Amino acid sequence: MPANLPPNYYAAEQRYREARSIPEKIDILREMMAIMPKHKGTEHLQGDLKRKIAKLQGQAQKKQIKSRTSSLDYIPREGAGQAVLVGAPNSGKSTFVGTMTNAHTEVAEYPFSTFKPVQGMMPFEDIQIQLVDMPPISMEYSESWMYNIIRLADLVLFLVAVDEEKPDETAFNVLSLLEERHIELGKNGDKKPQGQRAFKSCRVIATKAGNARAEEGIVRLRTIFEDEMDIIEWEATDSATHETLKKKIFDDLKIIRIYTKIPGYKADYEKPYVLAYGSTVMDAAREIHKEVAESMRYARIWNDDRLNGRRVERDYVLNDRDVLEIHTR
């Protein structure tokens, strides 16, 4: 028997996914229980929600009994994707995160001013992308715990200050230290580490590009990377470069945004579902809810460029900004 859940149930479920604190999650789960129709078709789902509430209540009690210190070598992913910043001392990472996210960072002219991860959320159109500023990597010293964060990131942003005398040598030293830890950077990396080895997607960001020596530095930088990684110039005071880079980072994450539409209602453009490149209608249905996927018959797609309510099947490959209307049994 189908659950026939109302639209406000799915809206609450989306808020539950985005909730950060345990009390907030518990409140939303209770709201979902109240919204859900009570019949045989929802018995399994009711039990699932009750188990989630009980588990969260247990976690809350444990936190009250004993505060737990979080490990530095793992940063929970937030938003549409996680991009980790790496670079040598004074490469401009803290300025970059502060400018692009408005997060509070320690910006100083001396090296090693960042000694722990600093997170910030970078807005891009209708989503947020998590940026994580890391301590610098250098031959003299680097924090051992940060390499695991780099290994698990969705994307690496490699910042190199091009106003230095030899930015190519600085970049080469950082790459060598990463390779010693079995981390390799390139254009099309793997989502997850393969055993000890991690091949990470990376974009090189040439910082301090407005300075006098920047042009020569960029030329030197291109000699070391050639076709291995894309390079983009960035200057803190040039807002045009900020918007261009945001789009590049979105593209590098290899994700798409999907908007949903309930039959007979207007599309919801406020909070898109974020999926990986190559995702299908069935992948989107599973992301919405497993019962939607199980009861789906077909879907309709709206897209400004190509489609206007065209019927598609489960294996149809979605594109960024598609509007999806799922029809169930």
Describe this protein's structure:
By secondary structure, this protein is of the alpha/beta class. It contains 10 helices and 12 strands. Strands 1, 2, 3, 4, 5, 6 and 7 form a 7-stranded mixed sheet that branches. Strands 9-8-12-10-11 form a 5-stranded mixed sheet. The longest helix has 23 residues, at 43-65.
Structure characteristics:
Ubiquitin-like (UB roll), 3 domains, 329 residues, 36% helix, Rossmann fold, alpha/beta, single chain
Secondary-structure topology with pairs:
Elements: H1 7-18, H2 22-35, H3 43-65, E1 82-87, H4 93-101, E2 118-124, E3 127-133, H5 146-152, E4 155-161, H6 167-180, E5 183-186, E6 198-207, H7 214-225, E7 230-233, H8 239-252, E8 255-260, E9 268-276, H9 281-288, H10 290-295, E10 296-302, E11 308-312, E12 322-328
Parallel strand pairs: 1-3, 1-4, 4-6, 5-6, 6-7, 8-12
Antiparallel strand pairs: 2-3, 8-9, 10-11, 10-12
Helix pairs in contact: 1-2, 2-3, 6-7
How is this structure best summarized?
The chain is of the alpha/beta class.
CATH class of the largest domain: Alpha Beta
Q: Within the CATH hierarchy, at the fold level, what is the topology of the largest domain?
A: Rossmann fold
**Low-confidence sequence ranges:** 66-70
Q: Output the structural class.
A: alpha/beta
Radius of gyration using CA atoms only: 23 Å
CATH architecture of the largest domain: 3-Layer(aba) Sandwich
| Major sheet description | 7 strands, mixed
| Count of beta strands | 12
Strand content range: 15-25%
Share of helix among residues? 25-40%
- Our count of domains comes out at 3
**From N to C, what is the helix and strand string?**
HHHEHEEHEHEEHEHEEHHEEE
Name the average pLDDT.
Answer: 87
- CATH superfamily placement of the largest domain: P-loop containing nucleotide triphosphate hydrolases
| Global morphology | globular
Q: End-to-end span in angstroms?
A: 10 Å
How many helical stretches? 10
